[in-house]
Amino acid sequence: MNRENKRKQYEKGYYKTHACKDSFTCKVCGRLVVADGAGSDHRNHCPNCLSSLHVDDEPGDRQADCGGVMEPVGVWVRKSGEWAIIHRCRQCGKFSSNRIAADDNPMKLMSIAMKPLTQPPFPLDRIEEMTALMGGDGSFTRM
Questions:
Q1: Boundaries of each RNHCP domain copy (predicted)?
Q2: Could you state, in order of their start, the residue ranges of all structural domains in the chain?
Q3: 110-131, pLDDT tens digit by residue?
């Protein structure tokens, strides 16, 4: 890559319009991450642990000074039915959303999606008591 093309690579918005085929080593799990298999031209998280780095203020701008680890904290489904990962920066707390990639770890995606159901903000052993307080009979049996 010549000097002029390398300079263009760091211009604002370059990554929005140009494919990123760079390989990197995940800062969380240590795996080598390659662009092949992602199903898109923009690999922005590890397909194994789904972690990323806080490098963008706006998608593709590479302007963030933080550099913290973006941990996957949730998933959501877009209007099109496509899943996206919600990341939160461990260092500054910023949230962002990234499309899932074709080779993302399906078990990790499902564990993130199921976390609110498996770890609710109330004790599960008191669910019958809470149901009774809401006017129900507190029973799980059907009539």
A1: 22-110
A2: 3-133
A3: 999 999 888 888 787 887 787 8
